[in-house]
Amino acid sequence: METSHRVVAGDSRSLSQVDDDSVELVVTSPPYPMVEMWDELFSDLAPAVAEHLANGDGQAAFARMHEELEAVWEEVSRVLVDGGIACINVGDATRTVDGSFRVFQNHSRIVDAFEALGFEPLPELLWRKPSNSGAKFMGSGMLPPNAYVTLEHEYILVFRNGTESRGFEPGAERRYRSAYFWEERNRWFSDVWTDVNGEFQSLGRGELRERSAAYPFEIPYRLVNMYSVYGDTVLDPFWGTGTTTVAAMVAGRNSLGYELDDDFARLFEKRVADVPEFSRTVVERRLADHEAFVERRLAEGYEFEYRADNYDFPVTTKQEKPIRLYAVADVRETNHGYEAVHEPVDGGDGHEDGRASR
Q1: Which one of 69, 93, 218, 329 is CB 3.0 to 4.6 Å from 196, fit for a cystine?
Q2: pTM of the full predicted structure?
Q3: What is the C-alpha to C-alpha distance for residues 144 and 295, in angstroms, rounded to an integer?
Q4: What CATH number was assigned to the domain covering residues 2-276?
Q5: 3-state SS class at 87
């Protein structure tokens, strides 16, 4: 299996190199309005933002920043197939403007924007950001009533393009091979993720990372597996350090990224060499986790009814039987980005093709 991955140096308010209805999934983490590290970017895109901030008008600045994001969401609506899914990772902002402290609810503004474009909001996810701070309050400290809680979570907002789910031909092989394990489904489709703080983080470092909206690899990797199938294309209009592209590579999907800053693309060139080894680590961990799950269930006396078609272990449901996991064997640079070659990974049964013994 081969997948293609393209990075476009450009402004995602106009996805001019992306055809209508050509993307099955969008996974992105945009710059967060009213978070100070993004003031300069938004001011460059819309000089009125700087004027509003200088005048102490936080609400006007907030609204103008979101207008720039809404231009991107309009393009997302154009390129996403009917029934396609958009996943937006975003956090709210707390800020003092003109002497007044308040929260700016980025997540609710984005929900409104997608609904206005005809998207159907689906249940959202929350994940808790790692924090090294012992302080859990702001404002008056231990004295009531003027303290404020600390924001330690971010939202993953999930939208479907239109009212109908995507259709597939009966028994579509690429869909069934893209299945996830029953226990992964129970964990991934919980509305609060408390376990993403770090096992599979593969991010840039230093100044570039500080200028990106980088988020843990596990987040886009789960979303890609949850909401797309082999052969799909995943778009990230705020590409940053390329975490979504790495997730798409590891998950065996095609990808497309838009990024204003060329420095990030140069950083990604250094990350690509590590993708094959990283990919195999991720996939082998998933298989090992499933085998550990099976052992626990067997020890509890559970009797599995089904066995995987391609692995020498049982699975909980019939839908899991065709599951097939792939690792990246090689990544090649092309004129437009990268091409990844994928090979099936066995489950430790000693068979090169990974097919379970009978």
Answers
A1: 218
A2: 0.91
A3: 51
A4: 3.40.50.150
A5: strand
